[in-house]
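Following up on my earlier thread - several people asked me to post the actual chain instead of describing it. Fair enough. Here it is, all 277 residues.
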Amino acid sequence: MKKFHFAAALLLTAALLSSCNEKNPSQPAPGASQSQPAFLEKADARTLALAHAGLAEGEATFTEEKLEAENGQQIYDLEFFTNTAEYDYEVNAITGEILSYQKEIRQQPGSEPASSAPVSSAPNASSAASLLTIDGAKEKALAHAGLSADKATFTKAELDYDDGKQVYDLEFVTGTHKYDYEVDAASGKILSHESEMRQSSGSTVSQPPASSSSSAAISLEKAKELALSHAGLSADKATFTKAKLDYEDGKQVYDLEFVTGTHKYDYEVDAASGKIL
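Reply from S.P.:
Thanks for posting it. Predicted structure:
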């Protein structure tokens, strides 16, 4: 009789185990590996961002495409621009969800919206679709200041945004004065200007900023040539957005930034030796 009860208990236990397995068919077997979610390809993330922005692939130039972790999730950080706007997107690297985006309007002559702009901008509509170059902006600032190029040393020349439009921020010095100019990158108009006397104790030693920049042997234009050469580019293939003489670790360096249709470059050039830092 005891054998009968023992056999019955075994059968009941087996039946219960079988019933549990049927109720949980999706539970993986012990030791089985669970598949990891696959990341989107970078090209797919680009396509999603462009589609959200209403752009085709050929209408935008990407300046940053980076996969990074943020708030416990993997995201693609994308930056790109067109002739009229700059975009910054964050895309979930697994689901493709647009997590955040930002659009900044670029005011530039020759673009499509310019055809409906006020009449005052009409002269620019027939001109080239590019902005005024840094050299062109420098010429206008020098002319406004009544100086020739050989009488001034530029310490800053940078393309920037101010009140929603692109402007060149220029700083240059002579032996006696310091100048600060803002030039509209679209029209070439002088937006603001300022000049001040340079402090001097009356001795030649007190005026090294002007002489030191010239005695550095490397001019701003030469530094740009060296950077372009190192990047394997010619001057007509790149647009400088920043060209500034600065101090770093006690020495003068040129801080340069320029872009092509597909890449963005950032260089530091030793103002004394011309060495790429």
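DSSP finds six helices and eleven strands in the chain. That should answer part of your original question.
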